[in-house]
Amino acid sequence: MGSRNNFTTVILLLMLLQFLDSYFSLPLCTDSRAPFALKSPLQFCPYNATSCCSSDDDLSLQKQFESMNVSDPGCGSILKSILCARCDQFSGELYRVVSVHREIPVLCNSTVSSNSPQSEQPQTDFCSKVWSACENVSIVNSPFAATLQGRVGEPVNSSNSTKLTDLWKSQTDFCEALGGGSSDDESVCFDGAPTTLTDGTTSSPPSGMCIEKIGNGTYLNMAAHPDGSNRAFFANQQGKIWLATIPEQGSGGTLDIDETNPFVDITDEVYFDVVFGLMGIAFHPRFAENGRFFASFNCDKSSSPNCAGRCACNSDVNCDPSKLTPDNGAQPCQYQSVVAEFTANGSSSGTSSATNASPSEVRRIFTMGLPFTSHHGGQILFGPQDGYLYLMMGDGGGDGDPYNLAQNKKSLLGKIMRFDVDTMPSANDVDKLDLWGNYSIPKDNPYAVDKDLQKEIWAIGLRNPWRCSFDSARPSYFICADVGQDQYEEVDLITKDGNYGWRTYEGPYPYVPTQSPGGNTSVASINPIFPVMGYNHSEVNSGEGSASITGGYFYRSMIDPCLHGRYLFADLYGSSIWAGTESPINSGKFTSAKIPFKCASDSPLRCTIVPGIDLPSLSFIFSFGEDNKKDVYLLTNSGVYRIVHPSRCNYTCAKENASTTPSRDPFSPPSSRASSLRGSYLLLNSSFFILTSYFVFVFS
Ligand SMILES: *[C@@H]1O[C@H](CO)[C@@H](O)[C@H](O)[C@H]1NC(C)=O
Ligand SMILES: *[C@@H]1O[C@H](CO)[C@@H](O)[C@H](O)[C@H]1NC(C)=O
Ligand SMILES: *[C@@H]1O[C@H](CO)[C@@H](O)[C@H](O)[C@H]1NC(C)=O
Ligand SMILES: *[C@@H]1O[C@H](CO)[C@@H](O)[C@H](O)[C@H]1NC(C)=O
Ligand SMILES: *[C@@H]1O[C@H](CO)[C@@H](O)[C@H](O)[C@H]1NC(C)=O
Ligand SMILES: *[C@@H]1O[C@H](CO)[C@@H](O)[C@H](O)[C@H]1NC(C)=O
Ligand SMILES: *[C@@H]1O[C@H](CO)[C@@H](O)[C@H](O)[C@H]1NC(C)=O
Ligand SMILES: *[C@@H]1O[C@H](CO)[C@@H](O)[C@H](O)[C@H]1NC(C)=O
Ligand SMILES: *[C@@H]1O[C@H](CO)[C@@H](O)[C@H](O)[C@H]1NC(C)=O
Ligand SMILES: *[C@@H]1O[C@H](CO)[C@@H](O)[C@H](O)[C@H]1NC(C)=O
Ligand SMILES: *[C@@H]1O[C@H](CO)[C@@H](O)[C@H](O)[C@H]1NC(C)=O
Ligand SMILES: *[C@@H]1O[C@H](CO)[C@@H](O)[C@H](O)[C@H]1NC(C)=O
């Protein structure tokens, strides 16, 4: 459990201000890692299923409690519950670790707390209970005293045994300092018992998703302009990025994009082929002031002198590049994965109004040679909370991750990485720390201080994370779709140091590798975090039985109130889209169901409709996008689509006219599986694949 920092009153007051914001988080521990399933209930603390405490942690809490010599049983039991709050699956939130690390969890300070809505009758709030049970009780090494150490102008009695009345003048002072949480926000507070979430109120399940077509182009990436305007960047796989203006919903307008005038064109640096190209773009959160933006792409060593990274197949990971040959699909390190920084400075009118940028790199952020030709993800995203740059990387290819690299913490393949691109290292540091480019390592990366492991790692055990996003309403929800091998396509909630199982598992199923020159990782040796959603390959109609997931967004627009709060994802092959519903809210537990979709009959650009069955033919769904209004887009081989009012497709959503402003209404899971599209249409037959294969992005 370790020692905790001291706090000043100033910090306590800052924390109080923080509480005024509604605060949402998925279950996370105080070390920002995910809670885990207990094999057996804890002995001391009352946690028996999912917890942040191991049995060792439990034992040390018991010792800490015993050393406090609390003579009064009433105060003792309340104090025990408070100490044990560290084991709660929401301890990260109870201790508000994002803003500041507290010594005591936030004590519920109102009669009806959000996490125990069953208490309808007025009753004493938990904070007052703590005060009245413990005010006159001596506590040795009181954790309450620790809260006040260093308090300005009022020296704390440093005696080892203190009463609450030694520390605070009154219950009001005490609860002002340590209380928080009330019935009118949804923040989690500690009420003396393990946090339980209850299902929210009802809300209609979506009967279908209505889309309109607003663009003809084929893009792989969309990024909203960081200035909050109605503009967004669109990038194609070949290497061009455009700045487009998005038409108002319902205006009948189309995407205003001038393909002849890209924002920047880096096609000369980009190696483009079926699975290679410009894979990701990210704009610095302060792009409007600093003009910094980033592109993640592939390069070819044989045609670009700037394509010269270290090979990811190397002796550190038991991979011998000379044993990889083109006949087993490998071309060791001919193709590389690159992240480069560019600038939109230079426009006389300032960066926010910049409509062009220079294609010459400001700096190389990252370069890594790839062992095989597939599974190299490449999306980049800035974390909304930490401002760090995340890079999604696949296992580097080969059937079944032959070198077992996704489980190897000495390899960057099969990982999500996290870089600090605001603090540039000296050339010296790059060498000394053995970095793969120009960035520094955030101090709390899980292996930041382990010299044998890759410091860039944030999470491991991924096969080909294809499209991740942060929930714009709850930034601790970092959700990624990970493309499967033979059986299962998965959606994962990504947490610090999480192991998502590949290749020991494919989704929830143990995976038996066919080759293992790099060794195996046993099921018993890891504690994987299983997918929160996904689908079997047998659930999609892609003609050949193949499948490849495309991750989307938590839909946060109110244009379709029935989709609000649900996570949308799709299969690449265009015939299936799912809505994931979390229940209870903030539990990290999801159910998902395919949703029917139609194109609005008044779509600005006509949708191609599959004859006879009145359904839009999207072709490949490469990516989703989200604009500054939180409207969600589908980037497909047949153009750009936007989700619109369900009534425009004659779908009914009872709430459509009731509300147009975002709310945080919880919703119930769909009462029945939405009608399946299985077997309904199949435009994507094999001849169609051959015709379009030049554009087809195959991940699986
Ligand atoms: C776990 O604890 C909860 C509440 O304390 C209790 O309702 C439940 O029955 C327990 N489950 C097991 C498996 O012990
Ligand atoms: C706790 O109480 C016991 C017995 O009352 C006493 O022997 C012991 O010294 C006390 N411990 C502390 C740290 O005060
Ligand atoms: C604590 O002590 C004060 C002063 O002696 C007394 O007024 C109060 O009732 C006591 N509280 C409890 C809960 O015993
Ligand atoms: C500090 O606390 C102890 C025990 O509660 C008490 O005996 C002592 O008088 C206090 N000292 C001051 C300076 O308040
Ligand atoms: C507190 O207790 C520790 C040992 O438990 C002792 O070393 C220290 O001197 C005590 N401090 C005070 C102020 O009594
Ligand atoms: C807790 O309750 C007290 C007493 O009702 C109140 O003065 C204080 O502002 C509350 N604190 C918070 C953080 O709600
Ligand atoms: C999109 O393509 C259609 C059909 O080729 C064409 O009529 C239309 O003008 C195009 N629209 C835009 C905005 O490019
Ligand atoms: C771009 O301009 C901003 C503001 O003038 C400045 O802070 C930043 O350093 C510039 N960036 C580059 C790469 O020149
Ligand atoms: C750092 O950036 C500079 C400028 O782009 C580049 O020359 C250098 O190779 C980069 N260093 C690494 C380790 O990539
Ligand atoms: C890895 O596991 C596979 C399947 O269980 C087995 O065939 C293979 O021999 C193992 N390889 C090593 C190096 O242990
Ligand atoms: C997926 O496939 C597995 C193994 O074939 C099967 O056990 C499971 O029930 C399937 N799940 C669904 C949702 O169809
Ligand atoms: C919705 O219903 C109207 C009236 O029946 C019809 O004209 C229109 O085509 C329908 N729209 C869709 C997308 O089915």
List key phrases describing it.
single chain; alpha+beta; Neuraminidase; binds 2-acetamido-2-deoxy-beta-D-glucopyranose; disordered N terminus; 700 residues; 5-stranded mixed beta sheet; 2 domains; 11 helices; 36 strands; disordered C terminus; 22% strand; globular
Provide a quick synopsis of the model.
With 700 residues, the protein is of the alpha+beta class. The chain contains 11 helices and 36 strands. A hairpin with a 4-residue loop joins strand 32 and strand 33 (615-616).
Description:
By secondary structure, the protein is an alpha+beta fold. It has 2 domains: 35-180, no CATH class; 209-698, TolB, C-terminal domain (Neuraminidase). It is built from 11 helices and 36 strands. The strands form 11 sheets. It has a 5-stranded mixed beta sheet, with no helix packed on it. The chain has a 5-stranded mixed beta sheet with strand order 12-13-15-16-14. It has a 4-stranded antiparallel beta sheet with strand order 8-9-10-11, with no helix packed on it. β32 and β33 (615-616) form a beta hairpin. The longest helix has 13 residues, at 55-67. It is globular. The two termini are 42 Å apart. The model is unreliable at 1-23, 113-121 and 660-699 (pLDDT under 50). Bound molecules: 2-acetamido-2-deoxy-beta-D-glucopyranose (12 copies). The site of one 2-acetamido-2-deoxy-beta-D-glucopyranose (NAG) has 7 residues, from β16.
